[in-house]
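Pipeline run #58 for the internal structure catalog. This entry was flagged by the ingest filter as a single-chain record with no existing model, so it goes straight to prediction. Upstream metadata was stripped on purpose; only the residue string is passed forward. Reviewer on rotation: M.T. Logging verbosity set to normal.
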Amino acid sequence: MIKRKIIIIISICLVHFFLNNVQAVEPDEILKNQKQELRARDISKNIRCMVCQNQSIDESNAPLAKDLRILIREKIKEGKNNDEIYEFLTDRYGDFILLNPPFKLNTLVLWFFPFIFFGIGIFIIFFHNKKSKQN
């Protein structure tokens, strides 16, 4: 019985792993120039899907992600460099579109909220355990 549950759990984990590692770039989006395509894929891996939130547009199947991938490829064909493409996207969507946002005054919340929530969580656990020991 336990072996069967372990096999089921491992199977679910493997299916989840392989489904998450599927790339969403469709064949009609791929550039003919391999060097430009590698640049587009590299940029796409650093851009957040605004629909999926914690996925890059390279991994997302959302229509907006597809539009952004096509837009990036068009900018590359126009001869724009990576910094110009990132600047265009951040001007349009804000720093949140970057999976690794820059450290600026208006992005401090993105950088420090995880640590603040971690501290609050430790504080809550500490006092909950302290109250439990008193009872």
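catalog note: Residues 30 and 37 are 6 Å apart (CA to CA).
catalog note: The chain has a mean pLDDT of 83.
status: ready for reviewer M.T.
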